[in-house]
Every structure is written in C-alpha cells, then in structure tokens.
C-alpha cells in the first residue's frame, strides 16, 4: 500500500523542473535577516574643524564619502573608511591614515571622567597634531552609543588580516564569515560662512578721567570639532570672571564716596586665540585709529583673563614688570609667578609708511597704486599681545603655564565642580588685587575695615555657577557664535548680562572679502548612515554554494526513480513493473 503512494510521489518529480524550486525556497527564507531594521543605522556626526587663517588652510577639506568601514588594524586600501575610538588612535596612525585613507570616523569616549590622565593627555596631543595641517579626506566624530559599540566590536573581530590568521584557509573563512559595514555621508560641499564677530564693552567712569584700566576676555571656544567646542576653562572662565568683576565694581562705583580714581573698561570679544584675536584687533583699530578716540586714552594697564579655573595662576607679560609700574603693582598683590614671553614691537616690519605714524595714534594713510600686502600678522600667543602691539601695558592672567598647552583647545574642556570652586577663588583673588591697586590699599587693615572689605568684594557664587554652566554647556566655536545675529545666542545673553552693570556698546566687525584674515566653512553637523553588508567574496561563494546545492538536488531528483526501483527490488525481491 505504502509503495503505491511512494510511486505517486515519485511521479511528481519526473520531468517537472519548476517544482524543484519549492525545495530551494526555504534557503532564501533562512538567508533573509531576522531583524531587517538592524541592518541599517543612522547617526548624527560632527565634522572636523575647517578654516583658513591668513590664507593657510587648517582641518579637513571635504565632507562626503561612501566607503566600506574597517578598523585600525584591518584597513589597507584607499577604499576603506577607518573607524576607531578616539582614545585608541595614535598620532603615527593618524598620519598614515591622513596620507592613504579617504575617510576617518572617530567615536568619542563614553564618559570623559572615566579617562585616565594619560588618555586625556594623549587625546589633547592628538587634537593638536590633527589641526596643525590640512587633511583632504573627510573626518567625522560620533558620540558613543551602544549601537556604535557593537559596530566597533564587529569591525575589530572581523576582517582579520593574513598575518593574524594561522592558515590561508582560516584567513579565507574569516573573510567570508565577517560582517561588513558600508558607511555613507551625503553632505554638501564645504561652503564659506559669513562671519561677523562682535566685541562688547562697557565702562565704569572713575573720579579721574586721566586713567583707564581695561579688563578683557574672549568668550569663544576653540577645539578640533566646532560642535563640541564647549571651552569650560578656555574661555568660559574668563568671560564669567569679567561679568562678575563688572558686578562687584559697579557696586563700588555706584557711590561717589567709594568710587575709585581710574575708570574701568570691561571688554568681551567673540574671536580668541584660534583666529589670532581678530575681533580685538578690529576693535582696537576702531577705537584708536580715529581722530576723536577717547575710550582708550591714558590706559593704565590691560588685564586679560584666559583659562582661570585651575588652582595655580600665572601672569603672562611681554615685558618684565618694572618696580613702581602697574604690572608690578598688580603682580605683587596677586602674588603669582610671572611668565615672560617677548614679542618684537619696536622693530616689527611695517607694510606702509603711514603705519609708523599710526603706532603713535595718529590718523595716517598712504596713497599708492600698489595692492595691500600683509606682512606682519604672525600668530600671537596671548590676548594681551594685541594690546601690547598698540603700545599699551598689558598682561594675561591664566592658569596655563604656556600658550602651547594642548588643554587650551580640546573637546575635553568640560565643566566640573572642582573647576568651579577654583574659578570662584580666582575671581575673588583678582577682585581683591584690583581693588587694592585702585584704592592703593596695604596689607595693614583693621578688623572692621577687613569685614567691610570682604562684604564689598564678595563673589556671588550662584551667579558664577549659572554663567559657568551656561557657557560651558553649549558649543561656542567661531563658526557658531560669529555667524548668528549679534543680539542672539551667547552674544545676546552676555550683552544682556553685562548691561545690568554698565552701559554696553556692541561693535560688529567685518572680514575683508577680498583678502580675508580668516575664512570659516560649513557644514558642521550631518547624518551618517551605516549599512550592514557582507564582503563581495561572500556573495561569490554564496552563489557558488547555491548553484552546487541546486545541482546536487536536481541530480538527486532525476535519480530518484532508479533509486526507488532498486529499493523496491531489495524489499520485495522482484523488480518493479510499470
């Protein structure tokens, strides 16, 4: 009975090829992904810094790519996008990638507080090395996420190179079985941004109009990634200190009985050391190179505040302070070490004859058919050097020992409670030193005067905390704060805060379109797509395997009747008669 039913089943496969495909259908069902959504990912990524300073390009120069992702140890050709953790890549590896790989994707640390001091120092040095030269390949940074962690693990354990495989067969098996990723960024071609930096200044008029003390800071931040340049120490701390000092001395100067002799001028500029203090340069030209210049007449000294949220402070000067001078007076009251870095002021090469008169604050110009030549715009180390070039006594108060400190321009410059505590103490120290200089106070004060002294110069810790957290919680790169309208964003907030204590004037500066001192570029942020794929050799081997399987299945079905006859002869002892 059951042999008759088997005869019917055998007739189904006799000469009807389309039915054979029903056997292969389960193969394609098994091959399809269990979760198709997991085959693609979308991430928000940040492009590396790109700008030109005095016609010298810095940062990456392109934005789009569509490449296969590989790890630091497995990439080998110009068709690979290198994907790695920021703390894992070395400067030597970056230089090799810069010269050979067409794209680089770096994943930021999960938590900066978990990094060791050695890792932080390594990242800061890497940032410095990356920004010094231009890079033709696009470089992007992505925030850590569990999905990215899985991708990194897959790339690290896949694509094992031949030298890490035991045999050629093992290398082939690893290549076929590995999971690949196609990484795509479709961003527009980098475009120039229209930058209009702003300088805010406000003045407290003293009893005597003969002298003016300038307290200045830049409020932008510098970093390898504009969208991640929060600059808690450099230079949110300096901007917060200017706000708090303006509040403290506005109370003292509000009463004629205790008003100090010199006037106090508070200045906040939107472009700092990353762009050679361009805003300060333009502001000084506007204030000094006019016939009715009065704002900066008889400047006693200029105190610049830069990165002051650490424990130890230094006074950076261009000339050693002479006894009896303003710098020596303030240095003595601050009781901080002096760091001297000489800049050449007297013998600097000038472009035109009129510049020799302009140095003496005379309105002068040269009539010539020659085009403008930029000879003397070398990079400055500290903010005070912009004022020193204009023959003002100026110095910078900073916790950094050197202007080359990599901590000055790093994406790791984020706020902390310890930094906030140091900032409050340093503002208090600076306020006391300034008040002691302004009122010519000595260390010998009685207890009653000391109490009044402490009350008058008390620091509002709540206000300092608020502004420190506000400024350091958002990116303040020049690409962001100088391309927004002047009265919006961070600039607008600082203008409103400073206007509580002084009458604020906002000066908007323009960059020369024909010969720009600097050029900023977009895009800053875009979307990155990661698609899970198999390598091309896997498709080839899979195709051969399917062809071999179907061929074997075809011949097995064709031979089934003969096999059945032999089976029937074995079971019944006689041949099957059709």
UniProtKB/TrEMBL annotation:
<protein>
    <recommendedName>
        <fullName>BOS complex subunit NCLN</fullName>
    </recommendedName>
</protein>
<keyword id="KW-0256">Endoplasmic reticulum</keyword>
<dbReference type="InterPro" id="IPR007484">
    <property type="entry name" value="Peptidase_M28"/>
</dbReference>
<feature type="transmembrane region" description="Helical">
    <location>
        <begin position="536"/>
        <end position="557"/>
    </location>
</feature>
<keyword id="KW-0812">Transmembrane</keyword>
<dbReference type="InterPro" id="IPR016574">
    <property type="entry name" value="Nicalin"/>
</dbReference>
<dbReference type="Pfam" id="PF04389">
    <property type="entry name" value="Peptidase_M28"/>
</dbReference>
<feature type="domain" description="Peptidase M28">
    <location>
        <begin position="201"/>
        <end position="251"/>
    </location>
</feature>
<dbReference type="GO" id="GO:0009966">
    <property type="term" value="P:regulation of signal transduction"/>
</dbReference>
<feature type="transmembrane region" description="Helical">
    <location>
        <begin position="20"/>
        <end position="39"/>
    </location>
</feature>
<keyword id="KW-1133">Transmembrane helix</keyword>
<keyword id="KW-0325">Glycoprotein</keyword>
<keyword id="KW-0732">Signal</keyword>
<dbReference type="GO" id="GO:0005789">
    <property type="term" value="C:endoplasmic reticulum membrane"/>
</dbReference>
<keyword id="KW-0472">Membrane</keyword>
<comment type="similarity">
    <text>Belongs to the nicastrin family.</text>
</comment>
């Amino acid at each position: 009975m059951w042999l008759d039913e088997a005869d019917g089943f055998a007739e189904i496969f006799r000469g009807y090829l389309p039915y054979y495909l029903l056997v292969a259908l389960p193969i394609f069902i098994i091959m399809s992904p269990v979760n198709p959504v997991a085959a693609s990912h979308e991430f928000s990524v940040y492009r590396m810094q790109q700008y030109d300073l005095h016609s010298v390009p810095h940062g990456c120069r392109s934005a789009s790519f569509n490449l296969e992702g590989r790890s630091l140890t497995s990439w080998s050709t110009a068709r690979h996008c290198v994907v790695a953790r920021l703390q894992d890549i070395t400067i030597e590896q970056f230089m090799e990638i810069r010269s050979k790989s067409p794209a680089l994707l770096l994943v930021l640390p999960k938590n900066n507080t978990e990094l060791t001091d050695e890792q932080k120092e390594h990242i800061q040095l890497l940032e410095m090395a990356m920004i010094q030269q231009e890079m033709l390949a696009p470089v992007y940074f992505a925030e850590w996420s569990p999905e990215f962690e899985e991708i990194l693990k897959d790339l690290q354990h896949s694509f094992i190179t031949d030298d890490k495989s035991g045999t050629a067969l093992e290398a082939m098996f690893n290549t076929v079985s590995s999971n690949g990723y196609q990484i795509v960024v479709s961003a527009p071609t980098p475009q120039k941004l229209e930058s209009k930096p702003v300088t805010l200044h406000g003045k407290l008029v003293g009893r005597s109009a003969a002298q003016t003390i300038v307290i200045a800071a830049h409020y932008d931040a510098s970093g390898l990634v504009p969208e991640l340049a929060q600059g808690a120490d450099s230079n949110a701390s300096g901007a917060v200190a200017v706000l708090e000092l303006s509040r403290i001395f506005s109370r003292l100067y509000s009463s004629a009985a205790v008003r100090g002799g010199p006037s106090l001028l508070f200045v906040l500029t939107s472009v700092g050391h990353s762009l050679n203090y361009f805003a300060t340069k333009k502001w000084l030209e506007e204030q000094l190179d006019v016939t009715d210049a009065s704002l900066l007449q008889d400047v006693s000294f200029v105190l610049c505040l830069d990165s002051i949220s650490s424990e130890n402070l230094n006074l950076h000067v261009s000339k050693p302070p002479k006894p009896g001078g303003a710098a020596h007076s303030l240095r003595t009251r601050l009781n901080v070490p002096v760091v001297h870095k000489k800049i050449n002021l007297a013998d600097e090469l000038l472009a035109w004859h009129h510049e020799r008169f302009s140095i003496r604050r005379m309105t002068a110009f040269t009539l010539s058919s020659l085009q403008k030549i930029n000879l003397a715009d070398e990079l400055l180390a500290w903010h005070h050097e912009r004022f020193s070039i204009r023959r003002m006594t100026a110095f910078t108060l900073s916790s950094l020992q050197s202007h080359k400190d990599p901590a000055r321009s790093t994406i790791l410059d984020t706020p902390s409670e310890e930094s906030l505590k140091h900032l409050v103490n340093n503002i208090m120290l600076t306020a006391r030193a300034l008040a002691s200089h302004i009122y010519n106070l000595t260390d010998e004060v009685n207890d009653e005067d000391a109490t009044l002294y402490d009350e008058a110069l008390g620091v509002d810790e709540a206000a300092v905390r608020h502004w420190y957290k506000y400024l350091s919680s958002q990116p303040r790169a020049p690409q962001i704060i100088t391309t927004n309208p002047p009265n919006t964003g961070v600039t607008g907030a600082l203008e409103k805060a400073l206007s509580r204590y002084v009458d604020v004037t906002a000066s908007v500066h323009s960059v020369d379109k024909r010969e720009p001192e600097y050029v900023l570029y977009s895009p800053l942020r875009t979307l990155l797509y990661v698609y899970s794929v198999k390598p091309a050799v896997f498709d080839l081997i899979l195709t051969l395997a399917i062809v071999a399987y179907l061929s074997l299945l075809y011949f097995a079905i064709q031979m089934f009747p003969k096999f059945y006859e032999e089976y029937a002869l074995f079971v019944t002892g006689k041949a099957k008669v059709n």
